């Protein structure tokens, strides 16, 4: 018995359909709305950066990672919670460094 999903049967057809739907969901609805959302983010990020002078510690990252729900699909960055939870402290420290670089990059 073959599986039929959204009118498609066979692994390749189902995977292609999933990829097509996923791609359509990840595209902005309009260039104008996309620019509005980017402008809002940049405005809010500048205010956030001005009010937050704390450095995020490795321990805070570890606590945050361990409190995430497991068994969820990876995001657009293709990273899963399990990867973060079960990785070594080196990865958590690397995240702290990356976060610092990102904040510094947005400020300058």
Report Rg: 19 Å
Number of helices: 5
The number of domains: 2
Task: Determine the mean pLDDT.
Answer: 77
**What best-fitting shape do the alpha-carbon axes yield?**
flat
Secondary-structure content class: mainly alpha
Strand share of the residues?
A: under 5%
Cα separation of the termini? 59 Å
Runs with pLDDT <50, length 5+? none
Major sheet summary line: 2 strands, antiparallel
Instruction: Please state how the strands of the largest beta sheet are arranged side by side.
Output: 1-2
Number-wise, the strands total 2
**Helical residue percent?**
55-70%
List the helices and strands in order: EEHHHHH
Molecular structure report:
By secondary structure, this protein is mainly alpha-helical. It folds into 2 domains: 1-53, no CATH class; 54-108, no CATH class. Helices cover 65% and strands 4% of the residues. It is built from 5 helices and 2 strands, in the order ββααααα. Strands 1-2 form a two-stranded antiparallel sheet. Helix 3 (58-67) packs across helix 5 (89-107). The longest helix has 21 residues, at 31-51. It is flat, with a radius of gyration of 19 Å.
């Amino acid at each position: 018995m073959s599986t039929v999903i959204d009118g498609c049967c066979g692994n390749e057809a189902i995977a292609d359909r999933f990829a097509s739907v996923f791609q359509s969901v990840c595209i902005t609805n309009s260039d104008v709305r996309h620019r509005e959302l980017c402008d809002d983010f940049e405005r809010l990020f500048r205010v956030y950066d001005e009010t937050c002078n704390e450095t995020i510690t490795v321990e805070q990252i570890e606590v945050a990672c361990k409190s995430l729900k497991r068994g969820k699909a990876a995001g657009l960055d293709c990273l899963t919670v399990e990867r973060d939870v079960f990785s070594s402290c080196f990865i958590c420290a690397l995240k702290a460094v990356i976060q610092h670089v990102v904040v510094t990059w947005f400020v300058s």
